[in-house]
Amino acid sequence: MHQLDSFITGKQQNLLHEALQHWARAEADKTAIIVAGEPYTYRDLDECSTSLAAGLLQRGLRRGDRVAIFMENSWHCVVAIYGVLKAGGVFVVINPQTKGEKLAFILNDCSVRHLLAEYQLAPVYKQALSHCTTLTHLIVSGGNKTATPGADGAPEYEHIEELLESKENKSTMATIIPLDLAALIYTSGSTGHPKGVMQTHQSMLFTAKSIIEYLRMDSNDVVVNVLPLAFDYGLYQLLMCIQLGATLVLERSFTYYLDVLQRVQNYEVTTFPGVPTIYSMIIAAHARNPLCFPNVTRITNTAAALPVEHIPRLRGFFPNALIYSMYGLTECKRVSYLEPEMIEKKPGSVGKAIPGTEAYVLDSTGVLVRPGERGILHVRGPHIMRGYWDRPEETLEMLVDGTIPGEKVLRTGDWFHMDEEGYLYFEGRSDDIIKCRGEKVSPLEIEFTLCNIPGVAEAAVIGVEDETLGQAILAYVVEEGSVKLETRTLKCELAKKLESFMIPRDIIITERLPINQNYKISKKELV
After folding, report:
1. Which pLDDT tens digit goes with each residue over 414-450?
2. Where do runs of H (alpha helix) occur along 27-149?
3. 71, 262, 465, 526: which could join 118 in a potential S-S bond, CB 3.0 to 4.6 Å?
4. In angstroms, rounded to a whole number, what is the distance separating the alpha carbons of residues 200 and 204?
């Protein structure tokens, strides 16, 4: 029997939370989540999320209602996600670093009536609630129970601990079907306001199973997650572990990375998901004090391309790990992956479409491009979003007509080319392409070339307005260790491999690159 279906006993799983209910019966005492050294079993998670679901239903939650979860990566955040699902709601996990104005926008944008928040974030949500018109219930995790974490004009608050201990009726659960929404995942918008990506139980369950399949995971895996659960890459680490009956080591962040790496050792972690900035931090730590994680059998990378020169370095301290390079976007979670066996044969590639889906490259007229030619990537499959919440015009720009009448295909807006064997190569996001001297320049190509120069640890390239050039190319470079670089030398090295119009006008050597809440390099801050 296939490992993905091993838990199905005469009943097909259709909803995202049904795996939790299964494992709570089959492996009740197995550790599901480890947070801050505290283990929680599948029984714990099932019982607590059921109690929360009952409490939410008692407090007026209706099928399809959006429930905001404004918490750090924590036990209560995990309970909240599965409690909302069991109650028939739509969870909206909001990054705990979100500021008050943006939080208020999200709460109002999807008409949130129930907010589950962490007490220590009270200064932020107090500010937001004074501008929120739809909220009826505020449920707080942690803090002093005699404190008043609400805001003027906000609803009375309750403590989540009291709901989890409540004896309220838990027998009445919501009736939902796979086409019902499971989550809104907010992503940056071109207008400056975030957009809520609508995903159903069906689409998220399909995606989790597809990723599990190509990562070759099973119930024995122990996965560490340092990424925010508000970030789909972090969220799916949780969903996949619960789907499999595996164990998740949940970290609040990677800020104290040496402590995190120690727990990777202590808990014999087998799967390490990361992004290039995280791997750069580990590489730097390894250079100072050699590290080795022999229990890790796979590492995954997405959010930005993994520099080719990182691969042998990663193998130095992950000696037994398969290395997966992947590409995705929130609107469909994951697009493609490169098999670990192909990582040397296809350097720079993000592979082929994930199992059960299709990806292809079209020109501006909608015609398939030839191998090697640049075009816009299109994605077809059950994993693509339902659309943006209450954004019909922006939805129409992303979901376009497919070849089958009535079918919608995701037009990513990202530039790619495909080789003769069907492997995809990312060339840049449509809004990242720099137009210099009348030529279209991919920042990624320059970044890759910079990172191949000895002594360069990281690089980021942007375009800035220039009266003569249209846009001038500006590069930021971080030195590796004690190496000292000169901009003149860097330009000379680039000139050996790149056309003259691709050489940056200015190269700025800096101690670090700014990163955002999801550990991606924040080019907006560079601009």
Report:
1. 999 999 999 999 887 766 768 676 566 778 778 888 9
2. 42-58, 75-86, 100-109, 122-129
3. 71
4. 6
